[in-house]
């Protein structure tokens, strides 16, 4: 039997964690030959050298393509696109996959989509059609316009792609793959989590995940300081994950490190997926601007305070409270959210059964030359 060769491109702990269950399902299917192209933050000790988690999972790594992450600016991000495009093209030319599988809206995925398009390889894009703030939205839509097939997280996103000119028979709403195994994966008890970071089990604990916004890079330090001040004023202990490598990331990092001596703050470079979702389930509050708060936290009913524009147009679960900016009123908003407490789990992004849908579609989508001729449907 001829196996379909799938190449998944990953650049961050986030996208790999979201896709872990789906990648395992693909890898276990005798109809596929899966390989992983690893790049970006995975290869940097500053961001936890998370390539080791990919190796530990047993996946075949097709190649590692390093980029320069020492400088967090828009200029550096644009230059890294060029580095990745050259490296990815070489890998795709050598591997000759049948399908390049991409998730989300980062530059790594855009570079891979450009390379695959010119190598005449089918592109499957997951999480297209969504809206959000900042540079992520145009990059996400650019990837969608290069992709041949689309697996969306919601029906709303599916309909948006169709309105953008994608063929309706090439767009399927499969749910968000990051919800697969989410409840079962949150296996570390709250008491064990608190003990591991020497936290008091009585006061509330906030999980802070705040990433830079490219267009607002210069204000990220001030915003991070204000978030910490609001949390401490509301009586919270804080578990803060370090930010990603986008422009402005060094300002978020510096603000967190400047507050490192605060007795109620714990800084973490990286949580393995199981630990991260266990903290998301156990925390009294999640705060910042991570998509995990918008998409995944609803499955636990964890209250979320979403700050700023990074996620400002995504579909919301009931557990999300939006705050336009971190200012003197933030501590009041935090207290109000904490007072309301945990909600009943509910999630508009799916039922946690995306992996089998994705695997079935990857096995059945047409890969003949006509399928790769991309055109607008209107």
Task: Please describe what this structure looks like.
- By secondary structure, this protein is of the alpha/beta class.
- The chain has 2 domains: 199 residues, Glycogen Phosphorylase B (Rossmann fold, 3-Layer(aba) Sandwich), CATH 3.40.50; 158 residues, Rossmann fold (3-Layer(aba) Sandwich), CATH 3.40.50.2000.
- The chain has 14 helices and 13 strands.
- The strands form 2 sheets. Strands 3-2-1-4-5-6-7 form a 7-stranded parallel beta sheet, sandwiched between helices. Strands 10-9-8-11-12-13 form a 6-stranded parallel beta sheet, covered by helices on one side.
- Helix 10 links the parallel strand 9 and strand 10.
- The longest helix has 22 residues.
- The model has no long low-confidence stretch (mean pLDDT 95).
Low-pLDDT residue intervals, each spanning 5 or more residues: none
* Structural class determined from secondary elements: alpha/beta
Largest sheet: 7 strands, parallel
Total of DSSP H or I helical runs spanning 4+ residues: 14
SSE string, helix = H, strand = E? Answer: EHEHEHEHEHEHEHHEHEHEHEHEEHH
Mean pLDDT: 95
Which geometry do the CA atoms define?
globular
CATH topology of the largest domain: Rossmann fold
Strand order of the largest sheet: 3-2-1-4-5-6-7
Percent helix range = 25-40%
Please tell me how large the radius of gyration is. 20 Å
The CATH level-2 architecture of the largest domain is identified as 3-Layer(aba) Sandwich
In the CATH hierarchy, what is the superfamily of the largest domain? Glycogen Phosphorylase B
């Amino acid at each position: 039997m001829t196996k379909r060769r799938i190449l998944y491109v990953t650049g961050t702990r986030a996208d790999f964690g979201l896709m872990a269950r789906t990648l395992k399902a693909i890898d276990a299917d005798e109809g596929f030959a899966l390989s992983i192209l690893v790049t970006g933050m995975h290869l940097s000790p500053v961001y936890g050298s998370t390539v080791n988690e990919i190796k530990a999972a047993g996946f075949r790594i097709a190649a590692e393509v390093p980029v320069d992450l020492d400088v967090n600016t828009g200029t550096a991000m644009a230059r890294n696109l060029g580095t990745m495009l050259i490296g990815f093209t070489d890998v795709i030319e050598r591997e000759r996959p049948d399908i390049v599988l991409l998730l989300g809206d980062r530059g790594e995925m855009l570079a891979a989509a450009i390379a695959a398009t010119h190598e005449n390889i089918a592109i499957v894009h997951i999480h297209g059609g969504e809206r959000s703030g900042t540079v992520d939205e145009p990059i996400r839509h650019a990837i969608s316009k290069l992709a041949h097939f689309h697996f969306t997280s919601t029906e709303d996103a599916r309909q948006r792609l169709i309105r953008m000119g994608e063929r309706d028979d090439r767009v399927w709403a499969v749910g968000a793959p990051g919800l697969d195994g989410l409840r079962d994966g949150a296996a570390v008890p709250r008491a064990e989590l608190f003990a591991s970071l020497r936290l008091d089990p009585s006061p509330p604990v906030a999980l802070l995940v705040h990433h830079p916004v490219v267009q607002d890079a210069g204000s990220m330090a001030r915003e991070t300081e204000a978030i910490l001040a609001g949390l401490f004023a509301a009586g919270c202990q804080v578990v803060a994950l370090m930010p990603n490598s986008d422009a402005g990331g060094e300002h978020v990092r510096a603000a967190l490190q400047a507050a490192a001596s605060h007795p109620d703050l714990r800084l973490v470079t990286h949580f393995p997926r199981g630990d991260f979702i266990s903290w998301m389930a156990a925390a009294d509050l999640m705060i910042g601007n991570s998509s995990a708060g918008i998409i995944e936290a609803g499955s636990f009913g964890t209250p979320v305070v979403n700050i700023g524009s990074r996620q400002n147009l995504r579909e919301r679960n009931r557990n999300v409270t939006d705050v336009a900016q971190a200012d003197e009123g933030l501590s009041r908003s935090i207290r109000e959210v904490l007072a309301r407490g945990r909600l009943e789990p509910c999630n508009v992004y799916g039922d946690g059964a995306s992996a089998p849908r994705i695997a079935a579609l990857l096995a059945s989508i047409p890969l003949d030359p006509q399928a790769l001729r991309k055109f607008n449907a209107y």
